[in-house]
Design goal:
5-stranded mixed β-barrel, 6-stranded antiparallel sheet, globular, alpha+beta, homodimer
């Protein structure tokens, strides 16, 4: 199946693990069978490949996430890069044009659109495959997935189907209701709208051409910044009469806040943590190298990263946003296509980082207005190219670049180095 | 007055702020009038100098604390360095010999011995001055300070005086009692034993010569390791008949555990901290550069340093010791005579530190078995001496030392540098 994963923007609801450049879907928090940790996007991608080995996955996202995606998923995944954020309709239109013009997908092929971060089991992706097959049959222009509600949630939109069959025509959509109204909806057979739908590529391409003046993918990409922000729901779904919904009864969780995230964790702690016997319902997610000791706490989440420390009563952790929105916190960690870096020290006039490069990782840059940039290779082997001249580097080597120097480094093995820039 | 401050050993009761080399008395936690923070030892030293500008202060401590003492108090303070820890009687004997043989204090001069870390007001030091005067008068061989109890504590030893006068003969001493027994003692007029006493120098010198075979300070210092561990109470006080006690009625606190320490703090937070409105009785002591966000907590202490994070219910924080005793945590921060260092990164085969030198600070060393040692000067100016050859250094300069190189650095201004050692 052709699947487009919508990879949402940055956000601080999972601060201090998520930040302005690290979205929650890239946090490695789920333990795999091998004991390693994987991120939401890695988990979803692994599940898709397991359920349908022939899946073609395209991630619709912004430039800022491209490095992290390549770093976490490799280069086999397609990426439809949004030059800026313009809500879901322009994003889906661009990804659809990308599939058609760049990847050569035919207009009568089905495309499934899905968020990048549902916390689900394999049956969910099997259902996506059914959704793709339904869209390909073409009985409706849009085929949605409706999730059987497990409680009258106020957090989700609702889909009201005509009947109770597995696949049904949609009668109407409802915005997030109060709990009381949600109960009524559920009594009428309503389903949660999980933001998943399938269509024949040509359908969305036609809608895009009706609403946006563009010739092809390149043209749409070039004028992306000029597009109006509008959601797919407002631009397409609300005006479409031919919509079907397929019921899904399996596990489905939206892990957008700390309280929902820790519920999904297999173990109460991740990273170095010590809890005394008097702790009850305490969760620790610690990305630091040093231990967190918890004593006598009840219903508390502790999360520590290089960017800060959260200590919150579990329910209140969902209300973190206003407190962290105004934090003017420099980025202390980032994933890059070549690996990752950590900021070790910042003071007026200088910055020191640790760079961990993957074997095969490559980076290139040029010294701007700085007194000096110094690399000390800690481990591994590579080839540095300084003003076009290549030289081998290994643990213990020191390289110093003057202003204006162009420099590059290719890691032949996994390679770590300390970079100090003095301005 | 001659005052000997006993500076106790390391301890982890205030982990993660105290560690194997940073004792609690050096943690800068008390806000001064200028808005800076000072440590217990700085606070006590400042108070002594204020109450009696002619005080001569000698700190009895181990080698490991000498750098921190010079760094925090400057070079005017005397230090009686214990070659190893041998409990209070050998320590006081050594300090007394030091005063006599090195500092030329006469045998009939009074000496006051006091712990380095009482949390008290100026009146306490005025009382020490009175204690010194009483000792000098010589009505008793030992003159103790007895603190008027404010509750029947189980944490302190008790002194039972003969009468209720301001200065009285001691009838007997009592070990730490139960609360019930403490109530009885207090009804009999008992006082807390705060570990403070005064004597004429010759008295303790004589007792030392009776109990230890030594000629002078140098001889005692040389054989210090062979001495038996014994407390001053067991070695001297228990056998002495001529003991007076002077009552002290002012504030006196022993800030040995987190719960007592946070009570003494002027403000609920130190360092970067955000508490939401639902927090009640929450204390944050954060030595890191990144913020701690607390939400919905009650009666909780959060303390964060480069060595770890403590999150504890307040009362339980006094029971931290068994949990941190077995933590095998590398030292991430230390004070040196020339300034301080922070460990930024440790990986197999390398270590990266940030060194902050004070203006005038000097260090010297030699490269041992290492592939390279690299300095990148971040700020400030100094003179580096490499294999005996001096050169000026400034921000942006890079120095790389091979194995066997002897190197030194004198900071002419405050100077920061990054040091990376690859083994």
């Amino acid at each position: 199946m052709q699947i487009v994963l919508l990879s949402g923007g940055s956000g601080k609801r999972l601060w201090p693990l998520s930040n302005d450049i690290r979205s929650k879907q890239f946090i490695k928090i789920f333990k795999t069978e091998t004991g390693d940790y994987e991120s939401m996007v890695q988990r979803v991608y692994r599940q898709i490949c397991k359920v349908d080995a022939n899946s073609k996955v395209t991630i619709a996202t912004s430039e800022t996430q491209v490095s992290a995606i390549h770093n976490q998923l490799g280069n086999a995944v397609g990426i439809s890069v949004e030059p800026c954020r313009r809500d879901t309709f322009p994003a889906i239109a661009l990804a659809t044009a990308y599939l058609h013009d760049v990847m050569g997908v035919r207009e009568d092929e089905a495309v499934v659109v899905c968020p990048v971060d549902p916390y689900v089991e394999d049956d969910y992706f099997a259902a996506l495959k059914q959704l793709s097959d339904l869209a390909e049959k073409g009985t409706a222009n849009l085929t949605l997935m409706g999730i059987e509600p497990t409680y009258p949630s106020e957090k989700y939109g609702y889909i009201i189907p005509e009947g109770k069959e597995q696949v049904s025509v949609v009668r109407t959509f409802k915005e997030k209701p109060t709990e009381e109204v949600a109960k009524q909806y559920i009594a009428e057979g309503a389903l949660w709208n999980g933001g998943v739908f399938a269509y024949k590529l040509g359908y969305v391409l036609n809608r895009a051409h009706e609403l946006i003046d563009f010739t092809d993918y390149n043209d749409l990409f070039a004028k992306y910044e000029t597009l109006t922000k509008i959601s797919f729901d407002y631009a397409v779904v609300e005006h479409e009469k031919s919509i079907a919904v397929m019921r899904f009864r399996g596990q489905w969780k939206d892990l957008g806040t700390w309280n929902t995230l820790v519920e999904a964790m297999d173990e109460p702690t991740m990273g170095k943590a010590i809890l005394n016997d008097q702790c009850q319902n305490v969760h620790v997610i610690n990305e630091l190298d040093v231990p967190v000791l918890c004593m006598g706490l009840k219903d508390v989440i502790v999360s520590a990263s290089a960017e800060g420390i959260l200590v919150s009563e579990i329910e209140q952790s969902s209300a973190i946003k206003p407190y962290v929105d105004h934090l003017d916190q420099p980025i202390m960690f980032a994933e890059k296509s070549w690996g990752e870096y950590h900021v070790l020290d910042v003071q007026s006039g200088s910055k020191t980082l640790k760079l961990n490069m993957k074997a095969g990782g490559q980076m290139d840059s040029q010294c701007q207005a700085e007194k000096s940039r110094v690399w000390t290779i800690l481990s591994g082997e590579g080839v540095a190219t300084i003003n076009g001249k290549a030289q081998s580097v290994k643990a213990g080597d020191v390289l110093s670049f003057a202003q204006g120097t162009s420099y590059g480094l290719t890691a032949q093995t996994a390679l770590s180095l300390i970079e100090t820039v003095v301005f």
